[in-house]
Design a protein that fits this description.
This protein has helices at 3-22, 37-42, 184-206, 211-219, 229-256, 328-332, 372-375; strands spanning 44-51, 55-57, 61-70, 83-89, 95-102, 105-106, 110-112, 119-128, 132-142, 146-149, 153-158, 168-169, 175-176, 267-269, 280-290, 295-304, 311-317, 320-323, 348-350, 361-369, 388-396, 402-410, 412-414. The chain is an alpha+beta fold. The protein folds into three domains: 31-172, Particulate methane monooxygenase, b subunit. Chain: A, domain 1 (Jelly Rolls), CATH 2.60.120; 184-256, Helix hairpin bin (Helix Hairpins); 280-414, Particulate methane monooxygenase, b subunit. Chain: A, domain 3 (Immunoglobulin-like, Sandwich). The strands form five sheets. Strands 2, 4, 7, 9, 10, 11 and 14 form a seven-stranded mixed beta sheet that branches. Strands 1-3-8-5-6 form a five-stranded antiparallel beta sheet. The longest helix is centred in the middle third of the chain and has 28 residues, at 229-256. It is elongated.
Length: 421
């Protein structure tokens, strides 16, 4: 390679690096796909999700609500939900969280001791802040496990970011026009002042020769030349100065704001929703994922303990909803505004669509086939620390009433290239 060509390639590489640094692409959505499949399929299952709107202006709100089920077969490799915090997932502070609730109880603080195998209602109210098209998710942050992200929907925010306001009225009746800019200048002044002190302290030591002369002094046993009496006096003066500034700042703050609320570190206990009678027993016989066919196949034994015939209407896992299109009640439960990429068009195929009669026990095979497994990065069951899967199955009686049951167990990846292979 000639020298000229080498220099041209290096120049192009440098220019590309500069462009990637100065002009980064915005992060838009689908961060949940980075989560391992065994976490997405065996921890939190989000269902009955809805977003009040997909279009709003700056300062308008969108309400995200639904239910979450903590799967009974919670992975051993993931910390149990002893302390959790309900939050939202979006690409930065493009929306502002206004309110959040778990079972209609305010969820500004962390919740503790959530119960496995139980359901919880949740609601999050978000306020538009920055114009753009954003992906909005619910998030359950679990201490020791991190963020478990739920399904997301695209929200379009219109308007001007300069119009955004976050007004707050304090307990004493003081009205703050915009919380995002309140006393920012005061904070910046203090930061600038402490920054000047830090720079002055650095310059004091940088004004003299540094590495080599000081190393020579150490070699000659002249440590007394490294820190002089003048250095000690400057350090003492600087200590007194900083201490005086801290005391003065504290006194001024207490005088200006006599009533202070410390940062809250407590947690609240939120009981789960009342437990419904267990009307369907499910015993998993076999679960496999056909890698080339992009298909999850589940064979399970179902026992109907209710007084009504039941049909399998939906299998949901990791935010994906595989709906049995032969069950009208299941199809009606899918809102037209629900994200279409989370409802695979192929639906759920059963080996037998006949209703499960009261008291009947039957083995049924469920086939959930779609490219969504690949798109959602849910195919690495073989490389997981625990090759198990889980999900929820929705049953419907003739009146359209729904029963929710869990299914979980080991899953085996298979590679089938055709019939008989």
């Amino acid at each position: 390679m000639s020298r000229l060509l080498r220099q041209a390639l290096l120049g192009a590489l440098a220019l590309l690096t500069l462009l990637l640094t100065v002009l980064p692409e915005p992060a838009l959505a689908h961060g949940e796909r980075a989560t391992e499949p065994y976490i997405r399929t065996r921890t939190v299952h989000w269902y009955d999700m809805s977003w009040s709107t997909d279009k709003l202006d700056v300062n308008q709100t969108v309400t995200m609500k639904g239910k979450l089920r903590l799967l009974s077969d919670w992975p051993d490799a993931v910390s149990k939900p002893k302390l959790v915090f309900l939050s939202n997932g979006s690409p930065g502070a493009v929306l502002t969280r206004v309110e959040s609730y778990i079972n209609d109880m305010p969820a500004q603080q962390s919740a503790r001791d959530l119960e496995l195998g139980r359901d919880y209602d949740f609601k999050i109210v978000m306020k538009g802040r920055m114009p753009g098209r954003w992906h909005l998710h619910p998030v359950l942050n679990v201490q020791g496990a991190g963020a478990i992200v739920g399904p997301g929907s695209w929200i379009e925010v219109a308007g001007d970011e300069a119009d955004f306001k976050a007004p707050v009225t304090t307990l004493h009746g003081t009205v703050i026009d915009d919380l995002q800019t309140y006393n920012v200048a005061r904070v910046q002044l203090w930061q600038f002042g402490y920054g000047l002190i830090g720079v002055a302290w650095l310059l004091w030591w940088l004004r003299r020769p540094l590495i080599i002369p000081r190393w020579v002094a150490l070699q000659k046993g002249r440590e007394d030349l490294l820190v002089t009496s003048t250095d000690d006096k400057v350090a003492a003066g600087l200590f007194v100065l900083v201490l005086g500034i801290v005391i003065y700042g504290y006194s001024q703050t207490v005088q200006a704001f006599p009533q202070l609320v410390p940062l809250q570190a407590g947690s609240v206990y939120t009981p789960p929703l009342p437990e419904s009678p267990k009307l369907v027993d499910i015993q998993l016989k076999r679960a496999e994922y056909d890698v080339p066919g992009r298909s999850m196949r589940i064979t399970a034994e179902f026992t109907n303990r209710s007084s009504q015939p039941l049909q399998i209407g939906e299998f949901t896992t990791a935010g994906l909803r595989f709906v049995n299109r032969k069950v009208d009640a299941a199809m009606a439960a899918v809102s037209p505004t629900f994200p279409k990429e989370l409802v695979p068009a192929s639906g759920l195929v059963l080996s037998s669509d006949a209703p499960l009669q009261p008291g009947e026990t039957r083995i049924v095979k469920l086939d959930a086939t779609d490219a969504a497994w690949e798109l959602e990065r849910l195919v690495s069951f073989l490389s997981n620390v625990d090759s198990r899967t889980g999900g929820l199955i929705f049953f419907y009686d003739p009146e359209g009433k729904r029963q929710v049951a869990e299914v979980y167990g080991p899953i085996v990846p298979v590679f089938k290239t055709g019939p008989g292979v």
